[in-house]
Design goal:
By secondary structure, the chain is an alpha+beta fold. It is built from four helices and five strands, in the order αβββααββα. The protein has one domain. It starts with a helix and ends with a helix.
Length: 91
């Protein structure tokens, strides 16, 4: 990852966190109490394997926040993937 990509990644995280606390992100209402989930919790919640998780991150379907201690997600970010898991019968 070059320096520009790293800077863009940091700016995205700052923007996301700012919008999360302001209450709106991509037209979706987020709650300050929105549950934060770890990588393992996301895999269990969506009923997917480690390989599928990595593929979805690579394809951009899942966008983790890279935090010390591992990837983090807000539950509200996972609504579309959750509906897809239900549709495919994973959960």
């Amino acid at each position: 990852m070059n320096k520009i990509d790293a800077l863009l990644d940091v700016l995205y995280k700052i923007y996301y966190l700012h919008m999360h606390h302001m209450g709106d992100y991509n037209g979706q209402q987020l709650h300050l109490k929105d549950e934060q989930m770890t990588r393992q919790q996301v895999k269990d919640y969506l009923g997917i394997s480690e390989t599928t998780y990595k593929r979805k991150v690579r394809e951009g379907k899942l966008r983790p926040l890279k935090m010390p201690g591992g990837d983090r997600f807000y539950k509200s970010q996972l609504e579309e993937e959750y509906r897809e898991s239900i549709r495919r019968g994973r959960i």
